[in-house]
Design goal:
The complex is a heterodimer of chains A (441) and B (312). With 441 residues, chain A is of the alpha/beta class. Chain A has helices spanning 4-31, 53-69, 83-94, 112-116, 124-129, 131-135, 139-144, 168-173, 182-194, 208-222, 225-231, 241-255, 272-278, 290-298, 300-305, 342-352, 356-364, 384-395, 404-407, 410-424, 430-438, and strands at residues 44-49, 73-78, 102-105, 146-147, 150-151, 154-155, 160-167, 198-201, 282-288, 307-310, 325-328, 332-335, 400-402. In chain A, the strands form three sheets. In chain A, strands 7, 8, 9, 10, 11 and 13 form a six-stranded mixed beta sheet that branches. In chain A, a hairpin with a 2-residue loop joins β4 (146-147) and β5. The termini of chain A are far apart. The chains are: A alpha/beta (441), B mainly alpha (312).
């Protein structure tokens, strides 16, 4: 009888692991590109994308158009609506012998490992061979997808810079203007604080919204080179005084009550911060462009009447260009080197990703495509003013710094977000943050 | 001669006994399917993880052997030690909160009171829900501006509702959610066990003048000893795998305040893509879980499985 608990545990763990493995095994069976037998085309190419109803319809439109004439057929496979889950599944698939032919990604850190293991096709020669195709995209966005000086991704979605959103009705009532400088911003913080309005909404629980503050403050104070050095892994790059200065500014904002007292319990994903902003309980919100579509979905009248936008203010004496932006340049399609028909995959990207029909469809979903010369079309956007604003903002930006958590090698992401959160909650000093980040290996 | 007969007979009887035993339980063959499953889905992966623990691998391409690098890193990694400490605190807290609740509820639910069946089935509802759904629901409830945390936070020492965003509050949230989810299961164990306690023991206790509290202490509790051990083993070993709750509710934060060891393992494997190091942590978890359950089984006398009904 002595073995009884053991065999029970055995059974439980076996059952549990079998349960866990079943979907994995099933995924292995279906994730490979569907085979075709004819040589030179006639293959079925799988295109993996994030689940997003509006976007998937647009992508399917491009695919249907391509499949009318293409030698090989492209098949759209929406994988998951959750970015982290999509990343995990893509990782497993890319490590297998049957990766997707075309894969949706965030560029930079999200595909660097695949490039290092030779999994992705260098699209540079194809782009240089067809300059008209290359010039059809905004250069800052196309370049943001470069890895080690080579192109691995073609922009396939809207641009997502981080923007300072504010409640224009509230600002008008209080006789205030959006901040032009960081000192203005501090004055606004004190002003709204005195009126019992939380100056900024911040979804600190999700951690990544905190990062936008560090990214912009470092950019404005030290320019893009500070983070370029960090991303390049230069020794001592985190010790750049710009980092400590920016973290000090963040602590100052926290001390002044810029984010209220309970920001660390507020989520962004489940509409915690967005609701605070929409109800007029917070005056401003630093967030990516997707804030607009979220507010349109969840709080229609706020989005229509009160929501407005401004650039992040400049910092006095800062080296950074006040026009520079940070955020997610866009999403990219990359081509797998193991694809059965790489030429058709590239042909698909060439024919469809900057086509008038695709651009028009993207604009109708509220996206602002990274395609050159489309100012005239942006009137068709559900938020034409915002679309034009974003387009011009990126167009005149001298640099577009990718979100740090995407740009850095994967092992930096968790410590970066956790340590920054500790600075926001004053569990760590700026100096401790720098030491902690220097020790990540 | 005369003495030899009973000896022979008793030996014959014993052989016959063993014979029927064997006929009823063909041992090895019956175990085969379980052994097969265990070998394929637990044994093999465990061996592979052990091999991976000596390699450097990011999940793509081929793993390269790096000797004892991962293991020596484990020993010098203060964040693993911190995760171990948080895991221990969480385990003890979860056990200490769940056991009395489940015990009292289970004994109560074993009775024959009015409305018992209705109330019990309501209590058991959380058992039917997925861990992820529970965690997401609680996340919404814990919103400091619009959720329950805003309304009730100041009664429990969080005037601004900043519960899940503070290190202690976040840990407490995990304990509360885990308790809410798993107490029904342990209640069920205790309910079944309490039903098995013979009536006659209570009758005897009543005759001896024992009141409700003394009956509970001197009859119910000793009778439930084996169940308490079972339930505790499940809770303690199970607490090493409270993973989804932490992942969805706090993501290990704020900072690293709720980064328990399984979360640390997940981060190493699927955020940092350091499969070798994650394998080392996984093996440490296996060793820890095995040691923990062996210890409990040994020191509680559970292995002997002595019936609480002996002498009845």
């Amino acid at each position: 009888m002595g073995e009884k608990p053991l065999s029970r545990r055995t059974f439980l763990s076996a059952a549990g692991i079998a349960g866990l493995s079943a979907p994995l095994l099933a995924a292995c069976g279906t994730s490979g590109p569907g085979g075709g037998d004819a040589k030179g085309g006639g293959k079925t190419l799988q295109a993996w994308v994030l689940v997003d109803q509006a976007q998937n319809r647009v992508q399917q439109g491009a695919i249907t158009d391509f499949n009318k004439t293409g030698a090989s057929k492209v098949k759209l496979l929406p994988i998951s609506s959750d970015g982290a889950a999509y990343t995990d599944k893509l990782r497993v698939s890319m490590g297998s012998p049957n990766p997707p032919d075309l894969l949706f990604n965030w560029g930079s850190g999200s595909i660097r490992n695949y490039v290092q293991t030779g999994g992705l096709m260098d699209l540079g020669p194809k782009l240089s061979a067809d300059t008209a195709w290359k010039n059809s995209f905004l250069p800052s966005v196309l370049d943001a997808g470069k890895i080690d000086g080579k192109y691995y991704g073609i922009p396939m979605r809207g641009m997502q810079p981080v923007i300072l959103f504010y409640n224009k009705t509230l600002f008008a009532e209080q006789g205030q203007k959006p901040p032009a400088t960081f000192d203005d911003l501090l004055k606004l913080v004190d002003y709204f604080k005195s009126k019992n309005i939380q100056p900024f909404a911040l979804g600190g629980l999700d951690q990544w919204p905190n990062l936008m503050w560090l990214e912009y403050l470092v950019e404005r104070t030290g320019g893009p080179s500070v983070f370029e050095n960090i991303a390049a892994g230069k020794p001592g790059a985190w010790q750049d005084p710009t980092i400590t200065t920016a973290l000090q500014q963040i602590r100052d904002l926290v001390d002044r009550g810029a984010f209220g007292t309970n920001f660390n319990s507020v989520n962004y994903v489940k509409d915690g911060a967005g609701l605070l902003f929409a109800k007029g309980k917070a005056a401003m919100h630093l967030m990516g462009t997707w804030e607009v579509s979220n507010q349109v979905d969840r709080h229609k009248s706020f989005a229509a009447k009160d929501l407005s936008f401004a650039p992040f203010p400049s910092v006095a004496g800062g080296k950074g260009d006040p026009n520079a932006v940070v955020g997610n340049p866009t999403n990219y399609f990359s081509v797998s080197t193991k694809s059965a028909d790489k030429d058709s995959a590239v042909e698909f990207l060439k024919k469809e990703m900057s086509s008038a029909a695709y651009v028009d469809a993207l604009i109708k979903t509220g996206d602002v495509p990274a395609v050159a010369g489309i100012e005239g079309k942006l009137g068709a956007s559900p938020q034409p003013d915002f679309a034009r604003y974003v387009y011009q903002m990126v167009q005149k930006a001298p640099s577009f710094t990718l979100s740090w958590d995407q740009a850095l090698p994967s092992q930096f992401k968790t410590p970066l977000l956790a340590n920054l959160q500790s600075v926001f909650t004053k569990k760590k000093s700026p100096e401790q943050f720098v030491t902690a980040m220097e020790s990540v290996k | 001669m005369t003495a030899a007969v009973p000896v022979a007979r008793s030996r014959g009887a014993r052989t016959a006994e063993r014979g029927t035993d064997r006929a009823a339980r063909p041992g090895v063959v019956w175990v085969l399917p379980a052994v097969f499953f265990f070998a394929l889905f637990a044994g093999l992966p465990l061996v592979l993880v052990a091999v991976l623990s000596f390699t450097s691998w990011n999940g793509l391409g081929t793993p390269t052997f790096n000797g004892l690098d991962n293991w020596s890193r484990l020993l010098s990694d203060s964040s693993v030690l911190e995760s171990l400490r948080i895991s221990a605190v969480l385990t003890v807290l979860c056990w200490a909160v769940q056991t009395p609740l489940a015990l009292l509820l289970g004994v109560w639910a074993a009775g024959r009171q009015r409305n018992r069946a209705v109330l019990s089935s309501i209590f058991f509802l959380p058992l039917l829900m997925s861990t992820a759904a529970i965690a997401i629901t609680w996340l919404t409830l814990l919103d400091p501006n619009f959720g329950l945390a805003a309304r009730f936070g100041h009664y429990i020492g969080f005037p601004d509702g900043n519960i899940i965003g503070s290190p202690r509050g976040a840990l407490a949230c995990v304990v509360v959610v885990v308790t809410w989810q798993f107490v029904p299961f342990h209640t069920l164990l205790y309910q079944a066990a309490a039903r098995q306690v013979p009536r006659s023991l209570y009758d005897a206790a009543t005759v001896d003048g024992a009141g409700r509290v003394r009956q509970f202490r001197h009859v119910t509790l000793p009778q439930l000893r084996n169940t308490i051990v079972t339930s505790s083993v499940l809770m303690l070993v199970g607490s090493l795998t409270y993973f989804e709750t932490v992942l969805i509710l706090t993501q290990g934060g704020p900072g690293t305040a709720t980064t328990i060891l399984p979360q640390k393992m997940y981060i190493s494997a699927f955020r940092d893509y350091q499969m070798g190091y994650a394998s080392v942590i996984a093996l440490a978890l296996v060793a820890l879980g095995t040691a923990l359950s062996l210890l409990i089984v040994r020191f509680s006398g559970f292995a002997k499985m002595r019936s609480t009904l002996e002498g009845m």
